[in-house]
């Protein structure tokens, strides 16, 4: 048991109410600075008096920092390209910026330009309208044809009007006539609605 430590010899947790011996303690001693009252502060008579040893310590610290390179500006902060500074005409001591003689009256659109731009805009609108009118009818026909050829349309027709279809589910002559008439009526109705609105 000579290699073991007694539980009472171990340090205890100070948060649990025990004390830890041998820890570092911080002792702060405050020194009062003498109050300096100077009625006439001047640059030749500084308000803080430094003794010679303090001045020597400051100078030796600066020399040591200078010799180790601590007072040198980091290379990332030194501009590498100074051409934009040396070639900028605005940094010249007698630089006079060029005067801007803008003629606001001539720069404004004339009546002819306004009319020309309006006519060009109208022509573009007319082109788009005519293109829409040309595409409208064939597109409507394609959509209607696709809708009438869907199996759900044929099954619904076979379910509600079985006289228009054969026993195998295909149209007979009456079915073709009926779907053609329905196709034409739907197309005519949609065309009239579009032309009205």
UniProtKB/TrEMBL annotation:
Residues 1-22, 74-93 are annotated as: Disordered. Residues 81-93 have a biased composition (Polar residues). Keywords: Membrane, Transmembrane, Transmembrane helix. The chain crosses the membrane at residues 131-153, 173-191. This is Uncharacterized protein. It comes from viral metagenome.
